[in-house]
Model the fold of this input.
Amino acid sequence: MASDHSPVLFSVRSAGEAQKPVAAHLLDSQTIACQLLHTLAASLNTPYTLHQITEVLGSQLGADACLVLWHHRPTASTAYTCWQNGSTAQLWQLPSLGRSPQAALQHRMAQALIQQFSVPQGSPVPLPWRDALLALTPDHPQGEAWLAGIKIYRSIVITAAPDCEGVVVLLNRRRGPGLAVEEALAVNLASLVAVALHQHHLQQQTQQCNEQLRYLSYLKEDFLSTLNHELRTPLTSMMLAIRMLRRPDLTPERVAMYLDILEQQCSRETNLVNDLLMLQTVDAGTGRTQLIPVDLGQALTTLAQEIQADLAAVQLSLVVTVPQEPVRVLAAASPLTRIMQELLTNAQKYSASGSTVTITLLPPAATDAQAVVQISNVGAGIQADELAHIFEKFRRGRNATKDAIPGTGTGLALVRGLVEQLEGTITVTSEPQADHLWQTCFSLGFRRHRSAMESPPVPKTP
Done:
């Protein structure tokens, strides 16, 4: 992120002026502080506050380069702005901690630099600045060229920034003691940079809030559109059936048919309302579930027998694999059944015609704390950027919208809530296969029940 249209508020010293003795650059604390204050005030409503502050600091204090490095504790984010003579300031945001070993190294290097610069020193001390900066920005566009011969000129600790620690580092290529920054000026500079940092984080929070509001608005519109369809379609069918039942010339067979339509569509509406109410109850955490030992293999076998006909009606086959030995878990029959029904319904919607849906209960080892069930199907996939959001309320994937697959986006959210009630876990993977199909697999983990039969035998004393 670079300030490609940052305004020039104050003149920068020319190269010839930079070669003058240090004594020629005696600083007027009040003038510099006023200039920075004006810069801050002029840039508060732009995304380039820190860029301009960094540039003014470096140019007015006679440095060849200026770095503002900070770590924001609440978000665990680390970033810095860097200005060098003859160019505009740029901002680098370090990758999120934990994303890669390189990101962890960069964060450690940034923390070490902040701590080392924060230690009071009587005179500037050379640092392996080149190695440090290259570790922070291995993709710097100019590489080592502009770092050659740089010495640490002066560091100013930023102490007044809320929830933030950082330093201002002035860099210079010339040898010698460097410019002396008065203590009063250093305090004023640190305070102004702290204000700029606070403004920067407020702007980031505002941007995140705006993005979240746009996302929530999109979810609301999508949900209302889907709900409108899911409510109107059954109501329309019921209204037509009622009108037909008013005809005096209907045969008993036709009357029975229209009554069946009314019953089916009424059940559909009731199920939709019940799903929304159950989702609300799960989200609120008001429902308490008593966990009891359940034979998971038997429960899966029974459920498979009940849903086999529904899958066969849409040209899907079902394969259930369970161990011969009982696998007992702590669960509750009703939530467990509902979880499996929702996942199988989901698999039915997105499976390719003629494919197979599989339910596999993995044989647990004696030391395993969880029993794992995998429900897998082949058909429409889940894109990588959607995997992290599929358990969110009213969230529907692009394939569902594109292919007009019915649903309200409540099923998987309800599954996640019920799994959490059973103190279990759920994950999902989706991998491309041949013929533009994807294999999607939901893995459920349930806490095993340690009964006396499952306990390892006690060795006999000889």
